[in-house]
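User: For my dataset I need records formatted as: sequence, then structure tokens, nothing else. Please produce one.
Assistant:
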Amino acid sequence: MRVMLLTNPHAGLKGPACPQDRFLPSMEAWGWTVHASPTPASAAALTALAYQAAQDGLDAVIVAGGDGTLHHVANGLAGTRTALGILPCGTANDLARTLGLPLDPDQALVALRDAQSQSIDLGSLNGHYFLNVASLGLGADVSTAVTADQKRAFGTWAYYWNVGSRLLRSRPYALRLITPQGTERLVAYQVSVANGRSFGGGWRISEDAEVDDRLLDVVVVEPMGPVALIDRLLLRRGGMAERIGTRSYRLPKCRIELQGPVHLNLDGEAFTLFPPLEFQVVPEALHVLMPPKKPAPEPGAGESRE
């Protein structure tokens, strides 16, 4: 197999946890042809590098990094046959969580050896792809507020702290949500549009969200009293839609109109866009390397027989 190995030495909680020499010897021992490279400094260069790997006919681009690095690589691989391989070395690792991949990089490396290429959906925002969740409002504010030092020092707790502190002083905003079913005028703290299930290091957007269901999960958080908010946060089961979401939708596309510019969080990366915001799901847009599915046990397997 011909692959490109991209490593981000700055990803993760405690500095350079995923250097090239942690993975390269195993891949070469498997007989793979590996083009190893550090991740470029700019997002545009990273996307261009992944795109060129696909044009060169490589089988996969394997990323040892976090969701932000995966985000930019996916934008280069979308619509091609070159697969994305994942070695989770970030803080949140939400795509790996959504796909059910090992969160330990060494275990993920072993899983890659016999992995098969499978297609998943991507979300699209004004033509820009995202893997997990796009958020505007509180989620985008938190993404901007959490520093690299905070993520290294506190991991996912850095997100939790900033969510709590900013919720106390955040202000709702007015918007129009346009769906295939009609138009609604809303006042919200946050709107999240999800392609995958996991965000923020293991928070779930919805119990129903899947990365290959050809649908987006849209969750709106409207103003509510502190007692109601605490009651919802204390629920032990459910994702954002079931716990603090006041409205939720499952649909292939939607449009959000509001006053701009708008600060957004896509896969943990901060963006600023001008409305309108056009969201849609792009079915089977990206190939990913996944371990072979284990066959389902036959009826009665494991049961004692007389």
